C-alpha cells in the first residue's frame, strides 16, 4: 500500500502537482537505494533584458529527476508530467537513448503510476542499499 511506503505523503495521489510528484518520487527512489536529484533545466535569466535565455551548457530533453543506483551505478531518469503537460520529442529521445544505453527511464504522470511501473519492473527488489 502506498501510504505505508510513504507515510509523509498525502493519501490523494491523483491531485498532486508536478513538484509534489517529483518530491514523492525522489523520496521513494532514495529509499530504494538510488542517489537522485531534481535536475534544473531552466535557462539563464538576463537581468538587463528581463528575459530567460537557453543555457549553452545545457542538454535538451534531460529528465526532471536524474541519478544512479548506489549498488551498481545504473543511471535513472524520470520525466514528470502533470495536468495536460505532454512529452516533448527531445525528452522522448533522451529517455530512449537512456534505455538503449542500459539505464532506467520513466515518464511519471502521478506517483501511484510511477510506483506501479517501478515495482512492475522488479526494481524495488534489486540491489537495495539500506
UniProtKB/TrEMBL annotation:
Which keywords, in A-to-Z order, does the entry hold? Hydrolase, Nuclease
Name the coenzymes or cofactors required: Mg(2+)
From what superkingdom does this record's organism come? Answer: Bacteria
Q: What SUPFAM superfamilies does the record tag this protein with?
A: Restriction endonuclease-like (SSF52980)
Gene3D superfamilies from the UniProt entry: 3.40.1350.10
Task: Pinpoint the VRR-NUC domain residues.
Answer: 16-112
For the keyword Nuclease, the answer is: yes
Q: Pfam families, alphabetically?
A: VRR_NUC
Q: Is Methyltransferase one of the keywords UniProt gives this record?
A: no
Protein name as catalogued: VRR-NUC domain-containing protein
Organism, by scientific name, is: Hymenobacter antarcticus
